[in-house]
C-alpha cells in the first residue's frame, strides 16, 4: 500500500469514496492508519476535543505543530493534513506562509485553511510554493463569533451562492480538495458536481466525494455528538468502566 498524497486523493474523485477523520496524537493516528483511513486531519478541533476549550479559537501554532509531529510519527500510509489555527493565517500572508511551512516541517503533507474568496490569493501562493492546500468552506468554525454560534450555513439562495463561489475560488487557487461543513445536502451535491476536485463533507449529506468525522465523535469518546454523526464505538464508556474497575481493584487489594 502506497502513502496517500494530494494527487491520489484528487484522483479518487468519482472512483472511490474516502472515509477520513481527525486524530491528534501518535497512538490514535497509528490505529486509524492501520485501519486504512486515507487522510488524517490534525484538526483545530483539538481545541474542543482534547484541550478542553469551548471553541477552536484558542488553539495556537505550538499546539498544532506538536500534534502534527505526533500524528506524522504514528502513520505509515495516511496523508497527514495540518489545520492552520485561528490567527496563523489572518495575520498577513508572509506570516501565513511561514506558519504553513512550520506545519510541513513538522510532518504535514498538506495544510487546511478556512475561507473562500477572501483567502484565495493566499491559497494560490501556498500551492505555488509546493504546499498542498485542502480548502474549507460553508460553516467555518473559526468564524463562530461572526455567526453568533455554530450554525448551518447556505440555507438561503444568497448564502448558498456565496458558498459555491467560495468553493470555486479555492479550487481555482489550486486546492486539491475542499471541506464542506454543515451546509444543506442539496447544496453540497451541487458543489460536488460543479468541482473537479473532491469535496470532503462533514454534516453536509451523502453526496460529497469523501467524509470527515471528528475522531472523538466516531469513537464515542465525547458524551454527546452532533446529530449528523455516526458513533462507531463507545470508547468513552469503555474507558470509564476500565478506570473504575482499576480504582476498585486497587482499593480492594485485587490488583496488583
Ligand atoms: O478541525 C476539524 O476537525 C475540522 C473538521 C471539522 C473538518 O476542521
> Would you give the CATH topology?
TIM Barrel
Q: Identify the bound ligands.
A: 3-methyl-2-oxobutanoic acid
Question: Distance between the terminal alpha carbons, to the nearest Å?
Answer: 42 Å
Rg measurement, Å: 19 Å
* CATH class type: Alpha Beta
Portion of residues within helices: 40-55%
Structural class: alpha/beta
CATH superfamily: Phosphoenolpyruvate-binding domains
How many structural units, i.e. domains? 1
- What integer is the average pLDDT? 98
Which CATH architecture would you pick?
Alpha-Beta Barrel
Major sheet description: 8 strands, parallel, barrel
- In terms of per-residue confidence, which ranges show pLDDT below 50 for 5 or more consecutive residues? none
Count of runs of 4 or more consecutive helical residues: 11
N-to-C SSE string, H for helix and E for strand: HEHEHHEHEHEHHEHEEHH
- Got a strand count? 8
- The proportion of strand residues reads 5-15%
What is the global morphology? Answer: globular
Can you list the strand order of the major beta sheet?
1-2-3-4-5-6-7-8
Outline the structure in words.
By secondary structure, the chain is an alpha/beta fold. It has one domain: Phosphoenolpyruvate-binding domains (TIM Barrel), CATH 3.20.20.60. The chain has eleven helices and eight strands. β3, α5 and β4 form a beta-alpha-beta unit. The protein starts with 5 loop residues before the first helix and ends in a 5-residue tail after the last helix. Bound molecules: 3-methyl-2-oxobutanoic acid. The site of 3-methyl-2-oxobutanoic acid has 12 residues, from β6.
Amino acid at each position: 500500500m502506497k502513502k496517500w498524497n494530494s494527487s491520489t486523493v484528487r484522483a479518487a474523485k468519482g472512483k472511490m469514496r474516502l472515509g477520513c477523520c481527525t486524530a491528534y496524537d501518535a497512538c490514535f493516528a497509528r490505529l486509524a492508519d492501520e485501519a486504512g483511513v486515507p487522510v488524517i486531519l490534525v484538526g483545530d478541533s483539538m481545541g474542543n476535543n482534547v484541550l478542553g476549550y469551548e471553541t477552536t479559537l484558542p488553539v495556537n501554532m505550538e499546539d498544532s505543530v506538536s500534534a502534527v509531529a505526533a500524528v506524522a510519527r504514528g502513520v505509515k500510509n495516511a496523508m497527514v493534513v495540518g489545520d492552520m489555527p485561528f490567527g496563523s493565517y489572518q495575520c498577513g500572508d508572509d506570516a501565513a506562509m511561514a506558519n504553513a511551512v512550520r506545519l510541513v516541517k513538522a510532518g504535514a503533507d498538506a495544510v487546511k485553511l478556512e475561507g473562500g474568496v477572501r483567502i484565495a490569493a493566499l491559497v494560490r501562493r501556498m500551492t505555488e510554493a509546493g504546499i498542498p492546500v485542502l480548502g474549507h468552506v460553508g460553516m467555518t468554525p473559526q468564524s463562530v463569533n461572526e455567526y453568533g454560534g455554530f450554525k448551518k450555513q447556505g440555507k438561503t439562495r444568497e448564502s448558498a451562492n456565496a458558498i459555491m463561489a467560495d468553493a470555486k475560488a479555492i479550487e481555482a487557487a489550486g486546492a486539491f480538495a475542499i471541506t464542506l461543513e454543515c451546509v444543506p445536502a442539496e447544496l453540497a451535491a451541487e458543489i460536488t458536481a460543479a468541482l473537479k476536485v473532491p469535496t470532503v463533507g462533514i454534516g453536509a449529506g451523502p453526496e460529497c466525494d469523501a467524509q470527515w468525522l471528528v475522531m472523538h465523535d466516531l469513537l464515542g469518546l465525547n458524551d454527546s455528538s452532533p446529530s449528523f454523526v455516526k458513533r462507531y464505538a463507545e470508547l468513552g464508556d469503555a474507558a470509564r468502566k476500565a478506570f473504575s474497575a482499576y480504582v476498585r481493584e486497587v482499593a480492594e487489594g485485587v490488583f496488583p
